[in-house]
């Protein structure tokens, strides 16, 4: 069964600093990977996804993620953090037909 | 831009009562889902629904839960006899046919069982 591990339940960075949120997956088949963001009191919004093709995926709000098969990773990055990036971020992998399996989530805090 | 909507946004109920959570998926989507997120925990899959039947369900989705698409637009989750541990945020999602397609989530219904 596919699973996802997000290292670090809380990450804090300064405004303008690099954001790096870690995600490792386990999958017996080529994975379909997603990053979702959850702003306070809101639902889940898709940031980006990897299905096939280019391993560096660009998403909304300046985020990107790189699929590294050798490391079974799909880390999320953003070169320069903005205060509005403060939210909870979830990595997910598709299991079976279309079920999403989520990681535990990483709460990102931006310090002024 | 099309979006998934959910009602109510908040629901408070007494233990043992029945609740129905409602969702309107994106109109041309074919797969529908319910997930839940207990406070402080990760988002968990409950059930997927396609062609008017359940296509997959988790261990959480026991006989107390049921789903229905009563008309062409609504998708509902019913909990027959709520328990304290059913308190959570419930998310509806919808997607197209392909495994690669994105699941679009609604804003959620926060259920509190007293």
Helices, strands, pairings?
The complex is a heterodimer of chains A (112) and B (114).
Chain A: E1 3-7, E2 10-14, E3 19-26, E4 33-38, E5 44-50, E6 56-58, E7 64-68, E8 73-78, E9 87-95, E10 99-102, E11 106-111
Parallel strand pairs in A: 2-11
Antiparallel strand pairs in A: 1-3, 3-8, 4-5, 4-9, 6-7, 7-8, 9-10, 9-11
Chain B: E1 5-7, E2 10-13, E3 19-24, E4 31-37, E5 43-50, E6 53-57, E7 65-68, E8 75-79, E9 88-95, E10 104-105, E11 109-113
Parallel strand pairs in B: 2-11
Antiparallel strand pairs in B: 1-3, 3-8, 4-5, 4-9, 5-6, 7-8, 9-10, 9-11
Question: Quick recap of the structure?
Answer:
Chain A is mostly beta strands and 112 residues long.
Please provide a written account of the structure.
The complex is a heterodimer of chains A (112) and B (114). The mean pLDDT of chain A is 92. In chain A, strands 2, 4, 5, 9, 10 and 11 form a six-stranded mixed β-sheet that branches. Chain A is built from no helices and eleven strands. By secondary structure, chain A is an all-beta fold. Chain B has 114 residues and is mainly β. Chain B has no helices and eleven strands. Chain B has strands at 5-7, 10-13, 19-24, 31-37, 43-50, 53-57, 65-68, 75-79, 88-95, 104-105, 109-113. In chain B, strands 2, 4, 5, 6, 9, 10 and 11 form a seven-stranded mixed β-sheet that branches. In chain B, strands 1-3-8-7 form a four-stranded antiparallel β-sheet, with no helix packed on it. In chain B, a hairpin with a 6-residue loop joins strand 7 and strand 8 (75-79). Chain B is globular. Classes of the chains: A mainly beta (112), B mainly beta (114). At the A-B interface, strand 5, strand 9 and strand 10 of A face strand 4, strand 5, strand 9 and strand 10 of B.
Please state the structural category of chain B.
Answer: mainly beta
Mean pLDDT across all amino acids of chain B: 92
Strand element count of chain A: 11
Q: How many E-type strands of chain B?
A: 11
Oligomer: heterodimer
Gyration radius of chain B, to the nearest Å?
Answer: 13 Å
Gap between N and C termini of chain A: 41 Å
In terms of DSSP E residues, the strand content of chain B is: over 45%
Shape of chain B: globular
Strand count, sense and barrel status of the largest sheet of chain A are: 6 strands, mixed
Major sheet characteristics of chain B: 7 strands, mixed
Helix/strand/pairing class of chain A, anyone? mainly beta
Overall 3D geometry of chain A? globular
Span between termini of chain B: 37 Å
Share of residues in helices of chain A: under 10%
> What is the ordering of alpha helices and beta strands of chain A?
EEEEEEEEEEE
Q: Beta-strand percentage of chain A?
A: over 45%
**H and E string of chain B:** EEEEEEEEEEE
Tally of helical runs of chain A: 0
């Amino acid at each position: 069964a596919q699973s996802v591990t997000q290292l670090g339940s809380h990450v804090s960075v300064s405004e303008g600093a690099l954001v790096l949120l870690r995600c490792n997956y386990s999958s017996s088949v080529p994975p379909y990977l997603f990053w979702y963001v959850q702003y306070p009191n809101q639902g889940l919004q898709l940031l980006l996804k990897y299905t096939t093709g280019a391993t560096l995926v660009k998403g909304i709000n300046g985020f990107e993620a790189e699929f590294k098969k050798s490391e079974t990773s799909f880390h999320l990055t953003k070169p320069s953090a903005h205060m509005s990036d403060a939210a909870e971020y979830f990595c997910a992998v598709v299991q079976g037909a279309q079920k999403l399996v989520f990681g535990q989530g990483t709460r990102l805090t931006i310090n002024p | 831009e099309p979006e998934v909507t959910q009602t109510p946004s908040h629901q408070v109920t007494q233990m043992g009562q029945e609740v129905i959570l409602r969702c309107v998926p994106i109109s041309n989507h074919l797969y529908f889902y319910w997930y839940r997120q207990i406070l402080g925990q990760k988002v968990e899959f409950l059930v997927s629904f396609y062609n008017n039947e359940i296509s997959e369900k988790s261990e959480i989705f026991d006989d107390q839960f049921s789903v229905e698409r009563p008309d062409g637009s609504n998708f509902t989750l019913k909990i027959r006899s709520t328990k304290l541990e059913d308190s959570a945020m419930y998310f509806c999602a919808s997607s197209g046919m392909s495994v690669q397609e994105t699941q679009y989530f609604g804003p959620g219904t926060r259920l509190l069982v007293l």
